[in-house]
Each structure stands twice: as structure tokens, then as C-alpha cells.
Recover the amino acids of this structure.
């Protein structure tokens, strides 16, 4: 004999419904969280783009020796040996409610660390032609496979302007057998060449020589015009070397409460203080044969 059982369907349906609502609420929370995250990222990206544009504009003004609207007079920072000024209350665009401040910091450096393209020249100023000029050691190093051509510009004891040339790591371009005849190189490797200016002077130049500049040119094989090496120049006595590069940094800050401590965008420009001569006037004919004028 069979017994009948009653099914309690209303209670089970309620449990299933609550479970479905729980799952649905989780999906709603996840979607809302992602939407909020996307909105925040969109706002942050827009703020960054606006800050970047304002920083770039004022950086170019500083590079050209001018200042934009709302900018203060440059002041010295004696602790960090820099000059700085601030441009306040800048509006990114007509609809923006977020004003920004731009801080410009300018400093001058003795040492160099610059990318130099093939057959281009990095110029290191040594003096002004009135005094002997910097006559101590320079540590030159480079990243890349290149022969480095050094040109030492000077005024001799008769007042004539002259140039002495030498190479380091010659095997890349000239093959084996090339030697350094005049320059006092130390620690000479495939990526470094320390030059003792005083020793070079004593071995090749007369008393009364005034050094003007050391020009450094990477020579490379192949026809890739965009090829480059990074050249670093460090002075053993930087206090005696003229300034070589002006570094300008632009930092954009939001004026919104709680966002004023961290810059929204930072840009840096390295501006050489000593322009190299035209490359057209700085070529040398190299040959193993005889050159005749007919």
C-alpha cells in the first residue's frame, strides 16, 4: 500500500527565488564597480592629457626664454642649485572645472649623457679662449658599436684656431692597425676612453695653448642614418668645467583638494648650451693612398 506525500512547492520556489536574486545582485555590484572604475580611469586619463598639454606648453615657453600667463618671477633654490617659478590657476579648457598649477625647474649640469646619431657631434665646451680652459681628465663612455672620433679645438700660442683629431675603438670602421698618435688616452676599451687634457697638451701642444672644446662624433658602418649611440661625459673636476646642458622640468599639479601633492604629469627637456658646428664643415678625407691636387 502506497502512502501519498505532499510537495511543499511554495517554500522551495521562495528559496530558489532568493538564490537567483542573490546571484543577480552580485552581478549588479560587479557591473556597477566596473562601470565606476571605468569612469574614474576615464576622468584620470582626461586629467592626465590636460595636465600633459599644459606642462608641454609651459616647457616650450621656458625653453624659448619666455613665461606664460599667471607665471611668477623665477626664484633661486640655493639648496638644490636651481631656479624655479610657478604658473598658477591655469584652466585646461573652457569647460574644465579643475584648475592646474605648473612648476618649472631649471638647472644646469656639467656632465653629459646624451643620445648622438651616427655622424652627428656632441660638443663639450672646455673654455672661452681667454684662459687655458679645462685641462684635466674627462671620462668618456658610450653604449653602442662605434668608432669615436675626437676633435680638440684650441688656440695655439700664435693666436691661430686649430683642431687636433684622434680616434678611439678604431676597429669598427677602420680595421686593425689604427693607432692614437697624440691624445693621452687612459682606460681605453671598446666602450670607454678617458682623456687627460693636460697630458695631451704636454705631449702635442706648445705652452700658451688655450683649449676651446672637445667634439665627439660616433662613426658607424652601414647606411642606417637613424643609428645612434648614447655618449656619457664625466669630468674629474666638474667645478672647473663650464656648464654643458640646461635641464628644464615641468610638473603639472591639480588644485583640487586632496590632489595637490602629486603631479599629474612631468616632462623633462635637456637643452645643450653649446651647439656643435655645421657637419658640412667638419668632414675629413681618409685614404690609404696619395691625394694630389691637379
Amino acid at each position: 500500500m502506497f502512502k501519498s506525500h505532499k510537495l511543499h512547492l511554495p517554500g522551495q520556489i521562495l528559496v530558489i527565488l532568493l538564490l537567483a536574486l542573490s546571484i543577480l545582485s552580485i552581478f549588479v555590484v560587479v557591473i556597477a564597480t566596473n562601470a565606476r572604475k571605468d569612469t574614474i580611469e576615464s576622468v584620470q586619463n582626461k586629467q592626465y592629457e590636460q595636465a600633459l598639454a599644459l606642462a608641454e606648453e609651459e616647457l616650450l615657453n621656458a625653453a624659448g626664454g619666455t613665461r606664460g600667463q599667471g607665471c611668477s618671477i623665477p626664484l633661486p633654490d640655493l639648496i638644490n642649485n636651481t631656479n624655479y617659478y610657478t604658473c598658477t590657476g591655469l584652466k585646461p579648457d573652457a569647460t574644465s572645472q579643475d584648475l592646474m598649477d605648473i612648476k618649472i625647474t631649471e638647472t644646469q649640469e656639467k656632465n653629459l649623457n646624451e643620445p648622438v646619431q651616427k655622424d652627428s657631434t656632441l660638443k663639450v665646451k672646455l673654455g672661452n679662449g681667454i684662459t687655458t680652459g679645462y685641462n684635466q681628465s674627462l671620462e668618456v663612455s658610450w653604449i653602442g658599436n662605434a668608432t669615436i672620433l675626437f676633435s680638440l679645438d684650441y688656440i695655439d700660442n700664435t693666436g691661430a684656431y686649430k683642431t687636433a683629431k684622434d680616434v678611439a675603438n678604431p676597429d669598427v670602421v677602420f680595421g686593425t692597425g689604427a693607432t692614437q698618435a697624440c691624445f693621452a688616452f687612459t682606460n681605453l676599451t671598446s666602450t670607454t676612453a678617458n682623456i687627460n687634457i693636460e697630458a695631451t697638451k704636454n705631449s702635442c701642444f706648445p705652452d700658451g695653448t688655450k683649449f676651446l672644446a672637445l667634439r665627439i662624433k660616433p662613426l658607424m658602418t652601414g647606411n642606417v642614418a637613424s643609428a645612434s649611440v648614447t655618449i656619457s661625459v664625466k669630468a674629474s673636476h666638474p667645478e672647473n668645467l663650464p656648464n654643458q646642458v640646461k635641464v628644464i622640468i615641468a610638473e603639472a599639479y591639480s588644485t583640487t583638494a586632496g590632489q595637490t601633492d602629486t603631479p599629474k604629469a612631468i616632462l623633462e627637456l635637456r637643452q645643450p648650451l653649446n651647439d656643435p658646428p655645421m657637419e658640412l664643415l667638419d668632414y675629413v678625407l681618409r685614404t690609404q693612398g696619395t691625394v694630389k691636387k691637379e
Summary: The radius of gyration is 32 Å.
